[in-house]
């Protein structure tokens, strides 16, 4: 199980690095916009992301 978690973490880092590598200016602009969002909206986006990821993981497994 620890090996799978390590692989998942490494894959997450690769995927997270794609946009800043390919489009650094656009990524910086998107990050600036995210910094201006209220906490409630960021929490809702985080919740939606977690639920979508959990659902997709369940469907694929």
Automatic annotation (TrEMBL):
<keyword id="KW-0812">Transmembrane</keyword>
<feature type="transmembrane region" description="Helical">
    <location>
        <begin position="6"/>
        <end position="23"/>
    </location>
</feature>
<dbReference type="InterPro" id="IPR019201">
    <property type="entry name" value="DUF2065"/>
</dbReference>
<keyword id="KW-1133">Transmembrane helix</keyword>
<dbReference type="Pfam" id="PF09838">
    <property type="entry name" value="DUF2065"/>
</dbReference>
<keyword id="KW-0472">Membrane</keyword>
<feature type="transmembrane region" description="Helical">
    <location>
        <begin position="44"/>
        <end position="60"/>
    </location>
</feature>
<protein>
    <recommendedName>
        <fullName>DUF2065 domain-containing protein</fullName>
    </recommendedName>
</protein>
């Amino acid at each position: 199980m620890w090996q799978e978690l390590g692989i998942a973490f490494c894959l997450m880092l690769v995927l997270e690095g794609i946009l800043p590598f390919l489009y650094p200016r656009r990524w910086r602009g998107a990050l600036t916009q995210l910094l201006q969002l209220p906490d409630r909206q960021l929490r809702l986006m985080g919740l939606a992301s977690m639920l979508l990821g959990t659902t997709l993981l369940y469907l694929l497994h």
